């Protein structure tokens, strides 16, 4: 597999809970129109048929916008929807086993919460890591305590893998994350739950890109 890198800008994640009554594909398209070049399908409370239906629809949408499509957790859904890759947690199947099923040309990302997990991700062959939660977040249930900016700083200085900063990041604190060197940043409720997802995504994506042009 050729070397994978995360795009500079917004790393989008779906979340119908934050989106309240928004139509799924409509807010997903707003994220993509707003400049997100990678989107992760993360829906926990869905039956498998709906998961597959939405994942396939989102796969088509990401192809339209030339964006990378990642599925969270569900290996079968990732395969059946022909996603570009999968994002897993520390308690999911080991990376080496996921790689056997997905193949060498698919992307595997893994959430990490401390230096040891980040270093193990390199050994195991992850293509990128999630770093977080940076701040307290209510978006994800059963989430661990915030890892703080200190861990983000460690990763930026010591881990030679692409990473996405995630967890409790808002427009009013994103400058702290950018100051640590983060280039790919995930904001979930801030984007999906915004009154205008398109304009909010566009504005925050521009903030990230402008910071890295300094």
User: Could you state the order of secondary-structure elements as H and E?
Assistant: EEHHEHEHEHEHEHEHEHH
The percent range for strand residues is 5-15%
Q: Helices and strands: which structural class?
A: alpha/beta
Mean pLDDT score: 94
Helix content: 40-55%
Low-confidence parts = none
Give the CA-based shape: globular
**Count of DSSP helices?**
10
What is the rounded distance between the termini? Answer: 32 Å
Side by side, the strands of the main sheet go 1-9-8-7-6-5-4-3-2
Topology summary:
Blueprint lengths: L8 E2 L1 E2 L2 H4 L4 H10 L4 E4 L6 H17 L3 E5 L2 H6 L4 E4 L6 H8 L4 E6 L2 H10 L3 E4 L16 H11 L4 E3 L8 H6 L4 E2 L3 H4 L4 H15 L3
Helix pairs in contact: 2-3, 2-10
Q: What does this 3D model show about the protein?
A:
It is a single chain. This protein is of the alpha/beta class and 214 residues long. Helix content is 43%, strand content 15%. The chain has 10 helices and 9 strands. It has a 9-stranded parallel sheet with strand order 1-9-8-7-6-5-4-3-2. Helix 8 (174-179) links the parallel strand 8 and strand 9. The longest helix is centred in the N-terminal third of the chain and has 17 residues, at 48-64. The termini are far apart. 43% of the residues are buried.
